[in-house]
Every structure is written in structure tokens, then in C-alpha cells.
Design brief:
Length: 245
């Protein structure tokens, strides 16, 4: 097999190694967003809480749907009133809707939101001590009073819930990975035909040639090509012809 084939295979493997974790991280949030309407939003940045409504479904039914989609790191015991699913970067609280017991509310909280709003003592009745220790950084966080959207008016979060705006609908579900990047704009004078050819003009008959110089100037300098030999210099009167070195 050619060296080119191996390099192409390595690039594909590296690309997959980046894409698969990101897709897995967003799988549950995407499932909820696609199946249920967004009811309320709270927080911003990496501290967000999105609440969805599952009409005419019980808490265990909704929880099982999400578990079948992706197994959580931990899940609380089955309950008709409230259940928790802990994933890598988010905690999902599934609770009976207070305004309509036939409906279920699905609250997707980022871990930063949980750390800064929830009470660790409240979650002790649902999650393992080892999970809580990791979630609240060994007691550094977890001193809030929040207990979930169904009790937001009693155990208030740090910020206020609101009905989703158009921008909220575009952003939901919350991102689980902070992403940064740069965009490079190609010069309007660039020759796109030369990309990948290793040549200044895109010709298949010329390779390994690099041209530098001002794009607005007609004079360009070749870096790696040998300079052309000049015409022989003739010295008048000597009767000899010598070639310039």
C-alpha cells in the first residue's frame, strides 16, 4: 500500500476521534430537543438550565427512553415523582409537572449550574456519595437551595427562569463542550487552482515551486528554482569570448 493511502487513513482516524466524543456528548440533549417542546430557560454561558415538557408521560417512562438512548454514569431509583440521570457534563432531573400530574418535566442542567444552585444534601437522597463528591468538588460547591423547576418559586435559583426566546430555541439544548476557533479569510487575489498542486500556477508539469513577492507586483522571485544563465559576455578587441560565472 502506498504512503499516500496510509496518511489518508491516519487523517480519517484522527478526525473520527474528535467527532465521536462530541456527538456522544450531545446525544441525550438532542433527543430531548427533537421530541419535546422547550418550556423554560435559566442561566447563561456554562451555567444553564433548560426545561422541556413531555405531555401524557410518566417520570419512569421518560427516564427509560433517555436511558435506552444513552446509559448514564448513574441513575437514581425509579420513582413516579422525581428521578435523576447523571451524564458526563450534565445532570437531567425528570419530575412530575406540578400544574398537570399527567405531564413530566425534563430539566437539563449543566454541571456548573448544579454546582452553583443545588444543595448537596438534597441530592444525597438520589445519588451516590462518590458521584456527589465528584460533582461538588469534595464540598467546595453544593451550598445552594435549589431543588428543581417544579419548586423554583420556593427554592429559588440564582437567576430567574423565563419563557424561551427565539435565540433560546436556537441555542437549546445547552452546549456541553466549550468551543473556540479561528476563521481565516482567503485573499481575493489568491489563485484557488494552485491549492494542493505544489505549484504556483496549478500546472501538473511543474512541482515543488514556491513563489514569493508582492501580490500586486508583476515581478516575482523564485525561491527554489535555479536562475537562468545569462547570455555570454563579449569583450571587444580581445578576440576571446568568455562566459560569465
Amino acid at each position: 500500500m502506498s504512503k499516500k493511502w496510509w496518511l489518508h487513513s491516519i487523517k480519517i482516524i484522527v478526525l473520527i476521534s474528535f467527532i465521536v466524543p462530541m456527538l456522544a456528548a450531545c446525544a441525550i440533549s438532542d433527543t430531548v430537543k427533537e421530541q419535546y417542546p422547550l418550556e423554560s430557560v435559566n442561566g447563561s454561558g456554562n451555567q444553564t438550565s433548560y426545561v422541556y415538557r413531555a405531555a401524557d408521560q410518566t417520570v419512569p417512562e421518560v427516564a427509560q427512553q433517555l436511558i435506552d438512548k444513552k446509559k448514564p454514569e448513574q441513575q437514581s431509583a425509579e420513582s413516579t415523582e422525581r428521578m435523576f440521570l447523571v451524564y458526563n457534563d450534565e445532570v437531567i432531573q425528570i419530575q412530575q409537572a406540578p400544574d398537570d400530574p399527567a405531564d413530566t418535566l425534563i430539566e437539563i442542567d449543566s454541571k456548573e449550574y448544579v454546582r452553583n444552585n443545588y444543595s448537596s444534601s438534597f441530592l444525597e437522597g438520589y445519588l451516590l456519595a462518590s458521584v456527589l463528591s465528584d460533582l461538588f468538588d469534595n464540598g467546595r460547591y453544593g451550598h445552594g437551595n435549589y431543588r428543581g423547576y417544579s419548586q423554583k418559586d420556593v427554592y429559588k435559583p440564582q437567576t430567574t427562569y423565563h419563557k424561551p426566546t427565539d435565540q433560546d430555541l436556537k441555542n437549546a439544548p445547552p452546549m456541553t463542550v466549550n468551543r473556540t476557533g479561528k476563521i481565516f479569510k482567503r485573499s481575493k487575489n489568491a489563485d484557488s487552482s494552485a491549492v494542493g498542486t505544489g505549484s504556483s500556477g496549478g500546472s501538473s508539469g511543474s512541482t515543488g515551486k514556491v513563489i514569493t513577492g508582492d501580490s500586486s507586483s508583476t515581478k516575482k522571485k523564485s525561491v527554489f528554482t535555479k536562475p537562468k544563465r545569462s547570455a555570454p559576455k563579449i569583450r571587444m578587441g580581445s578576440g576571446r569570448i568568455s562566459r560569465r560565472r
